[in-house]
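Chapter summary example.
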Amino acid sequence: MSTAILTGQPVPGSSLESDLRSLGFDVRLASDAGEAETLLAAVPADQRVAVVDARFVGHLHALRLGLTDPRFAAAALPGAISVQPEARRALTRAVARESSASGGLAVATDDLAERLTAALDADGVALHRPELGTLVAAVPADPQERNEARQAVSAVDDEAVRLRSAVKARDGFFTTYCISPYSRYIARWCARRGLTPNQVTTASLITALIAAGCAATGTRAGFVAAGLLLLFSFVLDCTDGQLARYSLQYSTLGAWLDATFDRAKEYAYYAGLALGAARGGDDVWALALGAMILQTCRHVVDFSFNEANHDATANTSPTAALSDRLDSVGWTVWVRRMIVLPIGERWAMIAVLTALTTPRITFYALLVGCAFAASYTTAGRVLRSLTRKARRTDRAARALADLTDSGPLAEVLNRLSRGAVRRGPAAVAFAAGALVVLGAALAPYGSWWPVLGAVIYVVLSPVALARPLKGALDWLVPPFYRAAEYLTVLVLAAKADVNGALPAAFGLVAAVAYHHYDTVYRIRGNAGAPPHWLVRAIGGHEGRTLLVTVLAALLAATQFKIALTALAVAVALLVLVESIRFWVSSGAPAVHDEGEPA
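The structure predicted for these 598 residues follows.
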């Protein structure tokens, strides 16, 4: 139970007290600052507390946004302030100062909430002030202003605003026009029945896994059912975020589920398609693994570019200016969002092609579409990076270094070389990655040439650690490393030409990709990268790449398949156990992605 302290004289006919109770607050009345101090001290330290001016007039949803959002330690509205336990000390000090200023007299508490807000601002407390739009939140000074405020409240449909705000502000065309118009009502239905976003997220995952199972049957009926279930899973995927925004039910566990289940659903579906194709005599595991690699590398490009530039200073360029001008032309916005094949368009395409064609055609279309989207977005970002004059921060450089996933071999070599290779880390990472991938592709299975390429790759890997990654194109270093490692595994498994090698490679890449996604969302939540022991235990990108090439050179094809399977299981167990421990812990941050659709 949270506590709301109403300050000042109650206003006849006001619904404020009942509104606060409907939001879950235990309401107490304080006639002066001293009484407010006493009531505040009586509230348990682990509870949220709000101080609200009794004259407040506004929408219920305005109060909900300002007083109940769990993502912020402190928040304020006109005439109201709310703090969670981590900000209670600052509020207690501010109330104590107000009480002392009154000299213990029963002085009226008009504008106490506003003065407390100003005091917390002065103390450097980060106060969240929600954007209310057309919602009303005011403290009228006289009956005429109160009457005008009440009329303004009546003129705006609180529930309609709440439903609109439940939809993500920036989304793809398919999601905006084909899903959100009705999924928001599903979200409201769920909220009114007490369902949580985590339950809807889990239902979406289960639906997608059932869809993957249907695709794995290899029958036309199974493919049709898989396509329909995948679309329904996406509807639920949209609903869980809308439910979280509608009811402000954000949580650390929800952040972890939302951050990982989308990828788990999509990649499990790829595996289901590959299994279904195999039942029909068509081996498309290489295509499935290629699609997963391409999609993961696309995301790494997105993450690296955004982390490198989100807090850069003087962050302008002619290319960015052109993009802004195009955004002013309505139809270009939707075209540009569609051609990058965001999750809505991508899943719709996969679902339709699964139902109407074959897994091979589905993967071909997916690879072509994602390759075009990746080329378009990466080219635009390279142009922006080359033409903008930006100074990147130490935080951005640290994030890029963490995203490289450099292991113990790179660290040791960096110390021995004392950062000898300092220039052009992106070019070096690209050359080293191309060398190991080409070595694996051009040499026969069992050759030691890929090992030589991997050794050179390892020797050059310290380039990511030699100096802070603040160059114009240094954000390309993590995706180059991801592509090199994943493609090496794919090529060597394909070269083994033994049944089961490519599925084992799929499992290994999926486990490593999960680790990389986990790293991204920790960084986004300002929690830093995964613990160093984990990165060392799973070898870093350079250690895993070298190990896989050595295994391919030493082992027969059948043994190599077993080794890949064992490695996939070991990596998966390590990263999943640590990730689950982190995300369900009380100190883990809540991360809710409101940016571009993935």
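To summarize the output: The chain has a mean pLDDT of 90.
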